[in-house]
């Protein structure tokens, strides 16, 4: 079989390798950096499932000019490291190439070098890259399975020949559930023997590939499998071009050679915008795969002759070029396919000269902490008789709004007004701590049954504009004895509406994850006992017991009509490192991001409801 440019790194693949010459004027080069990625072998692998529509294939050819490219998917982060695994069919451990991978982790590829007596034999690999299933065109001598979509449709090419000079006929094919359809671009200007190869396919069953004309130049095209229609993919200024991959947006990745012999990759978006991809300093760049995030993968070459080296790469418009080398094949690596999870497939040459299949899964360094949230505020109260026979309350409270002042009183069932009031407020310092002994106004002989000490959110008497909110209780003691002198009680946090109704006991748990690759912190929250509606949340410096400045603001969490937050996740981007353990805390507030601060100072709505130290 004739060797396509897409497999230039394999010296003994299906035919003569493509010529690689130094860069010359051709496609506009993409700017980018040349960082290197490698790692140790691993069996990890990612997968997901997604699908989107793409433009319909046209029956007539068209030419596209160079106009720049569309943006990558906003939330996608180009991986910076990988775990590598060698994947070879036991039928031939000396020569394997993995060429495509779908979102379920099913891989398309083949074994066999294509040398006479060592023909290509196609396969797909599933079961965590361990279950090989042969896939060969009936009646063919050789088959390569080059791509697979999320519906399980595969494409590739086959040959009826296995000649010593490796000049063989090639016919493209599409396999729909075991029904093989031959594909050849309709032209009278064919190479002899004829060469047609399909190299990529998307979920709309639109395939891409190329044919070779009588002068030996390649011409890219799209093929709509369902409509059996063709659409020429033309790159302005090129003498030869290959369409190597297509995503669900209809973007096409490939490579083209100009009149000076320079070969560069390209990304042609569905709206006709073209970006040339030339790795800095490389003598050749080929784009071989593209996912729905417009992450392009491929191979570039540095040096020439015996000193030539090939390296895989990934590229996005935001992240630029990143080199990917299998650790056992540095300088001999090709990346041929990528799925929407950033999982790569390709091949490399090992120290024994064998060509090995390569599976590379994004290596994410994720730090995760599971937090149990405590209701705020917390503390204790001890009641005693003062020097003049008055009731005193010795309070130690943590988790108040920093700098806040609170009315303290004793209430009892059936009493419309407090049975005891304290002459001065409880005032928190700048860290939310309060420690004070308060004196009740007047003398109290005994307390009614069911009496409790409560701390209010604010001072209703001195804040008439917010009296209803200020009068909400935020903490309560246990039931007090009728003669409470010497009685000590824990304080329990409460969250009630202005009408006095509550949603139950305040509780919660959170999972906080830092992704060092994506530079994100994600917080997943479950909570109960909240007032329905939005609640601001922050990651702060300090601790629940000694509050500090805000480090990261989260989007508000939404409590439902029952006061519950169920599996809601908020993510902060641009985080360079996880705060050190013991230096931060997660705080969920009473109010929303719009009303917890006014004129640079905390409002009543700032009140911490749930808190946990990180």
Topology:
Blueprint: E1 35-37, E2 62-64, E3 82-86, E4 96-101, E5 107-111, E6 121-126, E7 131-134, E8 142-148, E9 154-159, E10 171-176, E11 179-183, E12 196-201, E13 206-212, E14 218-224, E15 229-235, E16 238-246, E17 252-258, E18 263-268, E19 274-277, E20 284-290, E21 296-302, E22 309-316, E23 320-324, E24 334-338, E25 344-349, E26 355-362, E27 366-375, E28 378-385, E29 391-398, E30 405-406, E31 408-411, E32 420-421, E33 426-427, E34 434-439, E35 452-456, H1 467-470, E36 473-476, E37 487-493, E38 507-515, E39 520-528, E40 533-542, E41 547-559, E42 565-573, E43 584-589, E44 597-598, E45 601-602, E46 608-613
Parallel strand pairs: 1-23, 2-15
Antiparallel strand pairs: 3-26, 4-5, 5-6, 6-7, 8-9, 9-10, 10-11, 12-13, 13-14, 14-15, 16-17, 17-18, 18-19, 20-21, 21-22, 22-23, 24-25, 25-26, 27-38, 27-46, 28-29, 28-37, 29-34, 30-33, 31-32, 31-35, 35-36, 36-37, 38-39, 39-42, 40-41, 40-43, 43-46, 44-45
